[in-house]
């Protein structure tokens, strides 16, 4: 039987295999992150008809005489070239730029994929939408930190997650306090008058000393048994242990006393018979000092807000300002650090600031006392408060506390860190997507569903994280397209078809030759 028949048959069979691969490539031209394959051929064994001989002397040697026996499949290679990226706008869609792969788990084994069309399931797990396998990575703790050496496991992103409140520990001040501000000029003689604290229920007689300045003094009930009087220049004093009934309230620092002639209540509830909202008008010829008021909302350990008001008043000493802090809205009171002094050098730099902390006691014991630092800037520098001879504009520009919040949205960065945005304005890390690399990704086994498994020649998976132990990075809101080149596949299809036809022609020609041989006996 002629060897060409078998060579032709091997050509038909293996070109058919090549056509199968081409057909599979074209079928997956729109499959997410599909990697095309190619077929290479190799020569089958060759039959030796005559061996080679060395040159005998003056004549040349003779080459071996061999006849080939067709061809075989040399390899079917997976082409792990980068596919183009397509923007989807879906924040859980991820595309890899580089040679890494996502790590998935079905609960019993790990598989790997380039397809990043992920979504959240009912339990908050990040899964591959086409097969339900769970995306692997590490989860952050409640503060958004990743533990060193944390095990790679299922990524969970429960949308009901909450961000705990953080109490204020620092407030920062900046701006100018006018070096040429007006210093307080006290009244030259005491004045007195009648105050109506609550119409028809509590009245009293006002007596002032020369330290009081003209204007309205507001009485505010902060909480049960605590009364605060705030002057027109922001200077205030708080009285504690105030009992109900007719008595004299002495605000020594302001030089004002109010002797009530009718009973009143000191309960926390506003209404008839209370001091809430009462205003005392003091008439005198005093000149108020220059003031600069500033405020900010601070938070206790339960996340409850407290409106902190700080007022600076120009002092007679050169480059000095006195300050006083109060808590508005009846949510609490200053326990310690309610007043102090700031001084400035002749060049306007901060020279001193005392005290540098305030403790607030929330009303009704709702939360524990909390203390925060006042940061006026660096002594001798201009990075906070300054004392130049120009208009005052000092403010409290920031604080680091916040209330509790609910998770409302997630986002992913290029290193695979999944961050949550909470309703309290806080953004913190929730998890980090793991990536795997292989020494020989072409050696991976296809398992269907866009996933691969390790093989004996792929090498073990080296699991790491983008930006740390893996050079690949992610593009969130995008998917990787198939790397199938249609024009190349059509060209390969034509070449394969012609190769198949040529091998078929070898078989028909060999058949005709055999027919001629059979016909020799006729």
List the helices and strands and how they pair.
Layout: H1 3-27, E1 37-43, E2 46-50, E3 65-68, E4 71-78, E5 85-87, E6 94-97, E7 101-105, E8 110-113, E9 118-120, E10 126-128, E11 134-139, E12 153-154, E13 162-163, E14 170-176, E15 192-198, E16 202-208, E17 215-223, E18 226-230, E19 236-240, E20 248-251, E21 256-260, E22 279-282, E23 291-299, E24 305-314, E25 320-328, E26 332-336, E27 339-344, E28 350-354, E29 357-362, E30 370-375, E31 385-386, E32 395-399, E33 405-412, E34 417-422, E35 427-433, E36 435-437, E37 445-446, E38 451-453, E39 462-464, E40 473-476, E41 478-480, H2 486-518
Parallel strand pairs: 14-30, 14-31
Antiparallel strand pairs: 1-4, 2-3, 5-41, 6-40, 7-8, 7-11, 7-36, 8-38, 9-10, 11-12, 11-35, 13-33, 14-32, 15-16, 16-21, 17-18, 17-22, 18-19, 20-21, 23-24, 24-25, 25-27, 26-29, 27-28, 29-30, 33-34, 34-35, 36-39, 37-38
What's the short version?
By secondary structure, the protein is mainly beta.
Indicate the overall shape.
Answer: rod-shaped
**So what's the CATH class of the largest domain?**
Mainly Beta
CATH architecture of the largest domain: Sandwich
User: How many separate structural domains?
Assistant: 4
| Name given to the CATH homologous superfamily of the largest domain | Flagellar hook protein FlgE
Fold and architecture overview:
The chain is rod-shaped and about 150 Å long. It folds into 4 domains: 3-80 and 484-521, no CATH class; 90-155 and 433-480, no CATH class; 165-183 and 289-403, Tick-borne Encephalitis virus Glycoprotein, domain 1 (Sandwich), CATH 2.60.98; 185-288, no CATH class. The protein is 11% helix and 40% strand. The protein contains 2 helices and 41 strands. Strands 7, 8, 11, 12, 13, 33, 34, 35, 36, 37, 38 and 39 form a 12-stranded antiparallel β-sheet that branches. Strands 14, 26, 29, 30, 31 and 32 form a 6-stranded mixed β-sheet that branches. The chain has a 5-stranded antiparallel β-sheet with strand order 23-24-25-27-28, with no helix packed on it. β34 (417-422) and β35 (427-433) form a beta hairpin. α1 packs antiparallel against α2 (486-518). The two termini are 20 Å apart. By secondary structure, the chain is mainly beta.
């Amino acid at each position: 039987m002629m060897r060409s028949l078998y060579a032709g048959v091997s050509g038909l069979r293996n070109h058919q295999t090549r056509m199968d691969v081409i057909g599979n490539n074209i079928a997956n031209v729109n499959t997410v992150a599909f990697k095309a394959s190619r077929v290479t051929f190799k020569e089958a064994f060759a039959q030796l008809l005559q061996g080679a001989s060395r040159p005998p002397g003056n004549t040349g040697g003779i080459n071996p005489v061999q006849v080939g026996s067709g061809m075989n499949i040399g390899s079917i290679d997976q082409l792990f070239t980068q596919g183009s990226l397509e923007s989807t706008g879906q924040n859980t869609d991820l595309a890899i730029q580089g040679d890494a792969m996502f790590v998935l788990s079905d609960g019993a084994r790990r598989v790997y994929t380039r397809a990043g069309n992920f979504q959240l399931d009912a339990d908050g797990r990040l899964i591959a939408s086409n097969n339900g396998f769970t995306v692997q990575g590490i989860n952050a703790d409640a503060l958004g930190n990743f533990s060193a050496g944390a095990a790679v496991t299922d990524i969970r992103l429960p949308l009901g997650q909450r961000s705990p409140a953080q109490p204020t520990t620092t407030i920062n001040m900046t701006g100018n306090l006018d070096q040429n501000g007006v210093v307080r000029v006290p009244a030259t003689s005491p004045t007195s008058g009648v105050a109506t604290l609550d119409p028809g229920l509590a009245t009293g007689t006002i007596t002032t000393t020369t330290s009081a300045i003209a204007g309205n003094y507001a009485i505010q009930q902060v909480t049960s048994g605590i009364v605060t009087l705030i002057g027109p220049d922001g200077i205030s004093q708080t009285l504690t242990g105030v009992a109900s009934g007719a008595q004299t309230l002495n605000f020594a620092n302001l030089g004002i006393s109010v002797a009530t002639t009718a009973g009143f209540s000191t309960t926390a509830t506003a209404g008839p018979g209370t001091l809430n909202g009462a205003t005392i008008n003091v008439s005198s010829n005093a000149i108020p000092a220059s003031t600069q008021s500033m405020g900010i909302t601070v938070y206790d350990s339960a996340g409850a807000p407290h409106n902190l008001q700080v007022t600076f008043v120009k002092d007679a000493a050169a480059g000095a300002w006195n300050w006083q802090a109060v808590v508005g809205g009846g949510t609490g009171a200053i326990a310690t650090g309610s007043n102090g002094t700031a001084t400035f050098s002749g060049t306007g730099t901060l020279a001193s600031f005392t005290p540098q902390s305030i403790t607030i006691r929330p009303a009704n014991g709702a939360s524990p006392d909390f203390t925060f630092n006042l940061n006026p800037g660096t002594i001798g520098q201009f990075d906070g408060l300054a004392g130049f001879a120009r208009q005052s504009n000092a403010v409290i520009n920031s604080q680091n506390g916040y209330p509790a919040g609910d998770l409302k949205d997630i986002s992913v960065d290029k290193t695979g860190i999944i961050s949550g945005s909470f309703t309290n304005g806080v953004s913190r890390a929730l998890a980090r997507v793991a990536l795997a690399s292989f020494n020989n990704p072409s050696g991976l086994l296809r398992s269907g569903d866009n996933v691969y498994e390790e093989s004996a020649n792929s090498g073990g998976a080296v699991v790491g994280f983008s930006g740390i132990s893996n050079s690949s990075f992610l593009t969130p809101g995008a998917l990787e397209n198939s790397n199938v080149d249609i024009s190349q596949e059509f060209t390969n299809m034509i070449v394969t078809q012609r190769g198949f036809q040529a091998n078929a022609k070898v078989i028909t020609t060999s058949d005709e030759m055999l027919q001629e041989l059979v016909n020799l006996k006729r």
